[in-house]
Amino acid sequence: MMLNEDQNPKVRAAFEKWPPLISEQLYRLRALILEAAAELEEIGEMEETLKWGEPSYLVKGGSTVRLGWKPERGDNYFMYFHCQTKLVPTFRELYSEQLDFEGNRAIIFEMGAPEHTEALKHCIKLALSYHRVKHLPMLGATAT
């Protein structure tokens, strides 16, 4: 996986508009996305861009992973996935005891709560590989 380390200035501005503690947490999730992508040999270059004004990560053959925060949700921040995929329902089946979800579109995080890094990284990898695995039962996954 390749990503130009010079962060897109528009994406940097999106991170900077959030409160510092939220921005710090979302930068940690960004690092985890980059780490997960680096472990996937089959994906090529990753694009970091904005979708709906929020940092989004795309690879050929994958589904977009997007990060966000809403002021009205306070200490909650989110990792969003395309709601018409099997991603979040699969994540829920695999990790309902470790991760919290919103509908079929997001993993919800609460400031100060554990992030369950390995489960989260597995979910990210499934999203980045989605179009190659969407035909498999459970996206070809088992819990890590």
Oligomer: single chain
Q: What value does the average pLDDT take?
A: 90
Helix content: 25-40%
The secondary-structure element order is HHEEEEHEEHH
Number of strands: 6
Q: What's the end-to-end separation, in Å?
A: 22 Å
How many helices? 5
Largest beta sheet, briefly? 6 strands, antiparallel
Q: Can you offer a commentary on this structure?
A:
- This protein has helices at 9-17, 20-38, 87-95, 117-128, 130-133, and strands at 46-51, 54-59, 65-69, 76-81, 100-102, 106-110.
- The chain is an alpha+beta fold and 144 residues long.
- Strands 1-2-3-4-6-5 form a 6-stranded antiparallel beta sheet.
How are the secondary structure elements laid out?
Blueprint lengths: L8 H9 L2 H19 L7 E6 L2 E6 L5 E5 L6 E6 L5 H9 L4 E3 L3 E5 L6 H12 L1 H4 L11
Antiparallel strand pairs: 1-2, 2-3, 3-4, 4-6, 5-6
Task: Provide a quick synopsis of the model.
The protein has 144 residues and is α+β, with helices and mostly antiparallel strands. 37% of the residues lie in helices and 22% in strands. The two termini are 22 Å apart.
